[in-house]
Amino acid sequence: GCGNSALSHDLHELGYTDVTSIDFSAACIAAMRARYARCPGLRWAVMDIRALAFPDASFDVVLEKGTLDVLLVEETDPWHVSPRAAAAMRRVLAEVSRVLRPGGCFISITFAQPHFRKPHYAQEAFGWSLRHAACGDGDAGAFHYFLYAMRKGQPLDPRDAALGRRLHQPP
């Protein structure tokens, strides 16, 4: 869900002129199309992240910023995610993996710390490697956010794969 973020336009201004943005909200997509009509390389589509309407291996990069957090917003215990939420996350990540080209990169930006998010990303079935980095301006009062990068076709580190397997074990 791109929402009304200027990220797509900012990427366009940086020279990434082939950007496709999706959101579940038709009103949001209509507003974004109108706002950035002068940028022909920006495309907008109403779409559900759980069932992407793109062909297999369509993208070199898939970027999400906070969209996956919505899938877990009702969870009361981040250490023990409900089977429903875990299944929703798996479904979305499987779709991302499906639309990535070999060698493509999935980038996820979130406030979710690695011990909560990595088990979801570290599934061997997705066929990608996993790296992460903490980001922030260094201000002691600021929240850090995390960038996760998954590369399609590269092996998953065995320690990460073990994290992924634990996600599916009963508590």
UniProtKB/TrEMBL annotation:
Domain Methyltransferase type as annotated: residue spans: 1-107
Glycosyltransferase as UniProt keyword: no
GO biological process, one term: methylation
SUPFAM superfamilies, per database record: S-adenosyl-L-methionine-dependent methyltransferases
Key words, A-Z: Methyltransferase, Transferase
Cross-referenced InterPro entries: Lys/N-term_MeTrsfase_sf (IPR051419), Methyltransf_11 (IPR013216), SAM-dependent_MTases_sf (IPR029063)
GO molecular function: S-adenosylmethionine-dependent methyltransferase activity
PANTHER family given in the database record: EEF1A LYSINE METHYLTRANSFERASE 4, SAM-DEPENDENT METHYLTRANSFERASE SUPERFAMILY PROTEIN
Similarity comment: family membership: Belongs to the methyltransferase superfamily.
This protein's name: EFMT4 methyltransferase
Underlying gene: Eef1akmt4
